[in-house]
């Protein structure tokens, strides 16, 4: 695989406007993401979204930074969602390739490994889908993330499940990914506080695809609702197996993922009625005109509809563009300050909830609305927003470091 992806200007993919003057410099972005293996269902769409945004920016004349204009290009590596590989990729990008801006980062374990060392480096790291709390909780001033931590949404999901009439909840969830365990713990706490009972918490490993034993055990405790969480493929298998076991109680989940990704494993019948309780990732109908334009451009460029998580990476690029323009320089200290004071750019796809008027809170964390989606007739349907207290969560977030 060619690891160097030179991105030419592609004005046909954007609404082009005359450039003020020709671009005369190039700024290289390092992309580290899961481009193979199980994490590729998140990482490859992020890579595509970054490329699309860069092509649009370059096609509109680049980025005006002081007296200079820059176009963007990338150096991309497959970190395989593996912590050791991701750390090696970061060292390669920083030490060998001389990259100052890092993007991508779909999976929590690999991203957390990089985030644990990146505070000592003279770079800026923009994180996409990886949602483990510690990635930004550590407070490194050079780390910024577009996706909120898992427990920010988990608490809202627990209250939602109770409000749907569930009183006895069975949990089947991955045991070894911080994003999912933090979400699960917040959900369980909120569900119990609302008055519900959690009858069991059964877990599975990162490589497991057969959750029949866990589902059977929970079924024996007669819950009136199930919560299932983990990576897309694993959750899809669990829904398929629940259907095969004749489980008809409401099923709620947290995984993200497109209808196509779920239907590659589970039938429409097995998926019918399932809920996904997530921060409102990419959904054109729920998000409006920017999202619809993004979906059209992504599909034209890549031949696929964008996955829900891809917009986090798309928005990273526009965030960096505006920070560079506001800073008027590529000097990292000035760009970090511009990121800390950035208002939400008009080109972003997701619905960000500013804290004190700024896109990122003091720890470099952004927040978006939470939502409930339900699978019906072969696709996800947006049903309603869940409570989203960005300011309240951010105040709590400032008090923790992991």
Q: How would you sum up this structure, described in words?
A:
The strands form two sheets. Strands 1, 2, 3, 4, 5, 6 and 7 form a seven-stranded mixed sheet that branches. Strands 9-8-10-11-12-13-14 form a seven-stranded mixed sheet, sandwiched between helices. α2 packs across α3, α5 runs parallel beside α6 and α13 (310-327) crosses α14 (332-340). The protein has helices spanning 40-59, 83-96, 108-118, 134-137, 150-163, 178-194, 212-219, 232-244, 259-263, 268-271, 284-287, 289-302, 310-327, 332-340, 390-397; strands spanning 4-5, 25-33, 63-65, 68-78, 101-104, 124-127, 143-145, 168-174, 197-204, 225-229, 251-254, 275-279, 370-376, 379-386. α4 links the parallel β6 and β7 (143-145). With 402 residues, the chain is an alpha/beta fold.
């Amino acid at each position: 695989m060619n690891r160097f992806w030179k991105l030419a200007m592609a004005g046909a993919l954007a609404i082009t406007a005359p450039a003020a003057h020709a671009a005369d410099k190039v700024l290289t972005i390092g992309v580290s993401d899961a481009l193979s293996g199980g994490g590729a269902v998140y990482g490859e769409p992020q890579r595509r979204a970054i490329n699309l945004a860069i092509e649009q920016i370059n096609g509109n004349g680049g980025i005006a930074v002081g007296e200079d204009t820059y176009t963007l290009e990338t150096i991309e590596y497959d970190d395989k969602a593996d912590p050791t590989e991701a750390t090696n990729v970061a060292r390669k990008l920083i030490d060998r390739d001389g990259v100052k801006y890092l993007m991508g980062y779909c999976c929590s374990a690999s991203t957390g490994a990089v985030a644990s060392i990146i505070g000592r480096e003279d770079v800026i790291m923009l994180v996409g889908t990886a949602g483990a709390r510690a990635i930004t909780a550590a407070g490194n001033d050079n780390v910024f993330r577009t996706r909120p931590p898992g427990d920010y949404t988990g608490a809202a999901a627990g209250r939602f499940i109770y409000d749907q009439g569930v009183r006895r909840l069975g949990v089947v969830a991955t045991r070894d990914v911080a994003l999912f365990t933090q979400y699960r713990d917040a959900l369980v706490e909120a569900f119990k506080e609302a008055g519900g009972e959690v009858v069991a918490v059964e877990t599975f490993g990162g490589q497991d695809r057969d959750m029949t034993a866990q589902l059977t055990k929970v079924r024996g405790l007669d819950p009136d609702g199930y919560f299932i969480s983990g990576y897309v493929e694993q959750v899809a298998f669990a829904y398929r197996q629940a259907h095969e076991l004749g489980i008809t109680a409401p099923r709620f989940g947290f995984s993200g993922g497109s209808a196509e990704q779920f239907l590659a494993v589970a039938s429409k019948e097995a998926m019918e009625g399932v809920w996904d309780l997530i921060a409102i990732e990419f959904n054109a109908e729920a998000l409006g005109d920017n999202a619809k334009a993004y979906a059209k451009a992504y599909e034209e460029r890549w031949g696929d509809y964008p996955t829900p998580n891809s917009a986090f990476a798309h928005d990273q690029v526009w965030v960096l563009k505006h920070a560079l323009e506001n800073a008027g320089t590529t000097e990292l200290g000035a760009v970090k300050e511009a990121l800390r004071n950035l208002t939400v750019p008009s080109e972003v796809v997701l619905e960000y909830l500013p804290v004190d008027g700024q896109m990122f809170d003091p720890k470099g964390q952004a927040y978006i609305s939470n939502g409930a989606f339900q699978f019906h007739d072969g696709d996800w349907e947006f049903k309603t927003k869940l409570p989203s207290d960005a300011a309240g969560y951010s105040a709590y977030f400032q008090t923790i470091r992991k």
